[in-house]
Amino acid sequence: MRNIGKVLKFELNSIFSKKSVRVTTLIMCIAVLIATSIPTIMTLFSSDATSSTDDNAIMDVSDIGFVFESDEITSEDFTTYFNADLNVYPNDNELRDAVKAGTINNGYIIVDATNITSITQNKDMYSYTDQIMTSLLQKINRDKALVALGIDPTVIDTVSNTPISINAIVLGKDASSSFLISYILMLDVYMLVIMYGSFVSTSVAREKDNRTMEILITSTKPSSLIIGKVLANGIGGFVQFSLILLSGVVGYLLNQSNYPSEISAMLFSGLSWDAIVIFLIFTAVGYLLYLFLYASLGSLVSKVEDVGSAVTPITLLFMVAYVLASIGINAPTSMFVKVGSFIPFTAILAMPIRYFLTTVPIFELIISLVLMSLTSVLLAFLSTKIYRLGSLSYGNKMSFIKAIKLIFAKDNIDL
Fold this sequence. Notes:
The protein is mostly helical. It has helices at 2-16, 19-36, 38-51, 75-82, 92-101, 129-148, 153-160, 175-209, 212-219, 222-254, 261-268, 273-298, 307-310, 312-330, 335-340, 344-357, 362-391, 400-408, and strands at residues 64-68, 87-88, 106-112, 115-120. It folds into 2 domains: 2-29 and 175-412, no CATH class; 61-155, D-Maltodextrin-Binding Protein, domain 2 (3-Layer(aba) Sandwich), CATH 3.40.190. It is elongated, with a radius of gyration of 31 Å.
């Protein structure tokens, strides 16, 4: 145990003394602070624009031009509904020139009561202007038809838009209130495992490449080396990402007044102490599970440049866990996600997501945690053996399956 402590202390000093780690942490903290300040920044740039916009207008038409080619639909029809003056052009050529010159962003040629031609320089993926224009023309046609029948369109609108109130009583958990925070935490865990998994495997491979591993093996037990190295990287990762999360919390608190109430609710209304505890426990156990895998795979290669291809299978496995958790955010009660929350390699993400978004029985949490803990212990045992085996193997990289077979072979049972 004392040797593990020595290795742990040495590796932690090595991690935190690296300038790259400190600089990366600082840059990411600053980036998170800036990201959480976006609502405040947006208010500084949008204050003038929002103050000049008519609250009763359907949308801002100051950067939209119109050409009316038919007497069926006139500019007065649109002016009534937009509650604003329109930029009307005499013909489509002048409208095109205005769009090309950047005078307006969009142009619409109202051909007749059922046809519109849209003109734009560059169309955004999420532009809804065309849909608004289509809906508005439909409403104009409907209102004219109702007036022709002697029916007041406002009466129809009043009846159709009768407000309905609903009082929702949620006996379990409201997934909508935890959606955003679940996605943020899931992304954080993904980055944590990928970054530090690669870091620990590269560190082990580098020790083998420069023959440092041979000296370390003679100085202390392989179990002390591998466990101390994994724990050090685990702690280092948690410290780094804790600082980044803390930066996010500080940034939010400083800019809280400029956040929409809906965003604040999605961030914190579904956050509870029991959910935080479950998240931390499953993340810690699953994190160690993957770090032991990455470390063992790193010891099977003889060159640092071979680490990438060696750890690809485990990286792909964790990507499967990420995809499964992404599905769980949208369908936390699906059988696919439930099964994934019991598989040790996917439970690290799937079970916390389930717990955040829906009610999970205590016995399921216990079963999942026990399975993942046992798997972590087994991988720690195998990693020790593989680490010792890898330290004696040079040349071509050894596959993980071959290493397992050698470990349990009768002649090598004492490794």
